[in-house]
Backbone:
């Protein structure tokens, strides 16, 4: 088996890169930047997931609103009664909690 040559272009390039890093101290800066980029990626990913969840809740709410709108346009009396009943239940719940 042959030992790797020190004149191999890959070794020369690696050595040159190490010399540049030593002279300019870029490795530490690059590690810091890479860490910052990774942190921002995690933040964006988390916020994207939160946005997707909020979007899904908004769509569900819009669908329920559309259903209530359709049912109230067909039967305004029943919709008004249901709205009044909902207020009554909500006030009872609030009163029960205070008691």
Residues:
């Amino acid at each position: 088996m042959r030992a790797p040559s020190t004149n191999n272009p890959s070794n020369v390039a690696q050595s040159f890169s190490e010399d540049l890093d030593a002279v300019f101290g870029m490795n530490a800066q690059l590690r810091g930047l890479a860490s910052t980029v990774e942190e921002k990626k995690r933040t964006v990913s988390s916020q994207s997931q939160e946005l997707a969840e909020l979007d899904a809740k908004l769509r569900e709410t819009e669908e329920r609103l559309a259903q209530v709108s359709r049912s109230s346009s067909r039967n305004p009396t029943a919709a008004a009664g249901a709205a009044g009943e909902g207020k009554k239940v909500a006030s009872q719940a609030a009163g029960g909690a205070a008691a």
Notes: Residues 13-98 form one domain.
